[in-house]
Amino acid sequence: MKRMVNRWLVCLLTASGLFTASTSLFTASGLFFALAPLPAAAHGERATEPYIRTRTVHWYDVTWTSDAIGVNDTVTVEGKFRLFSDWPDAASRPELVFLSNGSPGAVMTRVESYISDIPAQQSAKGLKIGKDYSFKLIMKGRVPGKWHLHPVLNVHGAGAIVGPGAWIEVTGNQSDFTQPVTTMTGVKIDDIQTYGVARAQMWHFGYFLLGLFWLLWWLRRPLIIPRWLVTLKGREDLLITKADDKMAAAVLVTVLLVVIIGYKQTVKEFPYVVPLQAGFVKIPEPPSVPEAATIDVKSAVYDVPGRSLRMDVVITNTTDRPLRVGEFMTAQLRFINKDLKAAVDSIDPSFPKDLLAGAGLKVSSDSPIAPGESRSMSLDATDAAWEVERLVSFLSNVDSRVGGLVFFYDDQGKRHMSEIAGAVLPVFTQIQKAASQQATGT
Amino acid sequence: MNKNDALILQSAELSPQAAQWSRTFDYLIIVVGAFLVWSVTYISQLLLAGDWDFFIDWKDRQYWVLITPTVTMMMAAGFQAIFWKLFRLPIGATASLLLFLVGVWIVRYHSWYGMAYFPLSLVIPGTCLMSAIALDAILVLSRSWLITGMMGGVLYGLLFYPSNWVAIAGYFQPVEYMGTMTSVADLIGYVFPRSGTPEYIRIIERGTLRTFADHAIWVSAFFSGFLCVFSYYIFWFIGSFACNPKFFAVGSRFKSAYGSKPATAGEVA
Fold first, then answer.
1. pLDDT in tens, A19-52
2. Between chains, do A204 and B127 touch, taking CB under 8 Å as contact?
3. Hey, is the C-beta of A256 within 8 angstroms of any chain B C-beta?
4. pLDDT tens-digit profile of B259-268?
5. Measured between alpha carbons, how far is B243 from B55 in angstroms, rounded to an integer?
6. Residues of chain B with C-beta less than 8 angstroms from the C-beta of A230
7. 3-state secondary structure B88-129
8. How far are the Cα atoms of A36, A263, B148, B153 from residue B136, in angstroms, in the given order?
9. A245-254, A422-431, B69-78, B196-205: which range is least confident on average?
10. How far is residue A67's CA from residue A306's CA, in Å, rounded to a whole number?
C-alpha cells in the first residue's frame, strides 16, 4: 500500500515537474518574443461580427489617391458612408463617433480628417441614421513598408467599424520623417515626434539618481538576515541611526527644493499653456436623398457550403426612370452585375481587388424595371470572399439579419441607391440533401 | 563596514562566516526582490491607471493628477510596510517607483516605439518617484506609519503634479491646427493614430473639480493627496498582513515522498 502511494506521489511529482518545465519553456519563448520587437502587421479588420459590418456603416465610393508614397508624402482616402437604417439593437447608435484610420500602429501619420467637409480632429456628434456623409483622410508616410490603410468610424459603444483597406507602399527612410509645428506663441518645434523627450528623460534621470542614492544609502549595509534578526530583538536604534535621520531630512528638503524651484522655473518658461481640449464637433444633418426603389426581402438564405447569399426580393421603382440592378454591396464586399456596363465602369481603379467578388451579382430578371413597377426577382451573391472576410458566422450572431446597399442605374447611366435588409437563414445544403435522401430511402 | 554595521552583525549573533553568507544572500535577494517589486508595481499601475499614464494627450488637469498618485501609492505603501516591518528598511516606496520608472521607459522604447511605431513624445510616462522618496524620508523621520500616512500621503499627492510638470509643460503650449486651438499634446495624439483608441474614449476634463476659479490642477492635487492618505493606510495594512508568514502542516506521507523517514520523524515528534 505504502509503495503504491509512493508510486502515485512520484508520478504526481513527475507530472508536476513536467508541467513546470513546459510552463518555463513557454514563458521563456514568450519572453523571447517579448524582448525581440516584432512589428504588428494585422489590425483586426475582419474581427468584428458580421451583423455589425453588414448593417451599421456602409462605405462606398472610397478612393485612394496613390498606392505608393515616399516618407513625408501624403495619400488621401476619401469617399462616403451611409449610416444604415436597419442598425442592429445590439450595437450602440452612432451618437458619438470619431473618424480614424486602421493601420498597424503609427506607420502613417494623420495630417487632416473631415466629415462632411468639417474638420474632424475631435470626436463628432449629430450624425443621423439613414443619412450619407462624405469623409476625407489625408495621411502622411512615416515608416517604410507595405501597409493596409482603411478608413475607420469609431462608434461610441459599438467599437471600430472598419472600411475597405488598400495596400499602400511607403518608401524612403524613416529618419527623414518630420512633423514641424509652430505654437501660437511663436515657438518653432522642429519635430513633434521627438519634442520634449530629452527634457522629460533629463528630469526622470535626475529623479532616478536621487532615488538610487537613497536606495544605496540603505542597501550598502548588512541587509536581510541581520536586520531581520535585529528587528526581532527590538534594537531599532541600531538600524536607524542619527546619521540616517539627518540623511532623511536632507533628502526630504532636496526633494521639496527641486520640485518647487523646478516648477516655478517651468511656469516662467511656459507662461502660456492650455489644457487638453475635450470638445467635439457637431456635424449638420445632410439633406435626405430619396431611395431609388423600395426593396422588400421575401427570403434570404446563405448557402454555407456554396458560399452564396440568395435573396428573393420585390423591388418597386420609385423614380421616373427605368432602373437596372447594378451592384449589391455589404461589409465592403462588392458584387457587381457584370452584364451592366455602367456598374462595371463604376469601379475605381484604386479599389482593392480582393473586395470585388469574382462571380459578381446574378440577377434573375435583369431587364429594366419601369417607373412605378414592382417586380419579383432573386439576387445571387456568390463568392469565397464571404468566408475569407469572415462574414458567415450567422449561427454565432445575436442578430441573424443581413443588410447592404443596392445600386441601380437608370437608362442615362445615373446611379441611384437603396438599402436592403432582412432576416437571413443559413442553409446547410449537403446536410439537408442527405436528410432528405434518408427520409425518402433513395 | 563601519562600527554600526559591526554592531548590527554582533546583535544578530552571526558568525563572520554566516555574516559573509548573509551578504551573498543579500545580493541574490536584491535581484529577485527587484523583479518582484518591479512587476507587481507595473501590473497594478497598468490595471488601475492605464491610459492616463500611457499617452501625453491623456495627462489632463483632473483625472491624471488624481488617479496616478492614488494608484502608485498602493504598491508604494504595501512595499514600504513589508520592508519596514520586517527589516526596518525605509526603501519600499522608492524601490517601487524607481523600478517602475525604469520598467516603464523600457516598455516605452521596446513596445510602444519598437513594435507599434509610436513616437516617444506620445508615450512620455509620468512618475511619482519624488513623492515616493519623500514618503520614505518621512517614515524615517517619524518612525510612524500613522504620521507617514497623514503627512506623507498628502505630500505624495501634492508633489506629483509639479514634479511632472517640469518634464511635460512644453506639451501644453497652444497651437492652431485645422482652424481650432489645441495643445501640442492633443496634436501629437491626433497626428499619430491609435486605431483602437478613438478620441472620445479619453476621460479628461470632466466633472466639477474645476469649481475653484480656474485652478483645476491644484484642486485635483489636494484631492489626490486626500485620497493618497486612505490609499496609504489600506495598503499599509495589506503589506503588514503579508509580513505574517502562514504555513500548513504536512503529513508524514508527503514527507516520505521527499525521502524523509516518517518513523524517525515520529520518534522525534
1. 555 555 555 555 555 555 555 555 677 888 888 8
2. yes
3. yes
4. 766 555 454 4
5. 36
6. 8, 11-12, 88
7. CCCCHHHHHHHHHHHHHHHHHHHHHHCCCCCCHHHHCCCCCH
8. 36, 22, 8, 11
9. A422-431
10. 34
Give A297→chain B minimum CA distance, Å: 35
Q: Residue A194 corresponds to which amino acid?
A: T
The residues in B 63-92 lying below 8 A from A, measured between CB atoms, are 85-91
Q: Average pLDDT for residues B73-98, to the nearest whole number? A: 97
Backbone angles phi, psi at B242, to 5 degrees: -70, -15
Instruction: Supply the DSSP string of A388-425, one letter for each residue.
Output: HTT---GGG-SS-EEEEEEEEEETTS-EEEEEEEEE-E
Cα–Cα distance list, B5 to A226, A235, A241 (Å): 10, 13, 11
**Between A40, A226, A274, which is nearest B12 by CB?**
A226
| pLDDT at res. A17 | 57
- Amino acid A360 reads G
What's the Rg (C-alpha) of chain A?
A: 32
Residues 6+ apart with CB under 8 A from A288: A130, A131
* Residue B216 burial (10 A CB sphere; 0-12, 13-18, 19+): buried
Query: Which pLDDT does position A343 carry in this prediction?
Result: 95
Task: List all residues of chain B from 144 to 173 with a beta carbon under 8 Å from chain A.
Answer: 159, 162-163, 165-173
Identify the helix (H) or strand (E) that includes residue A360: none
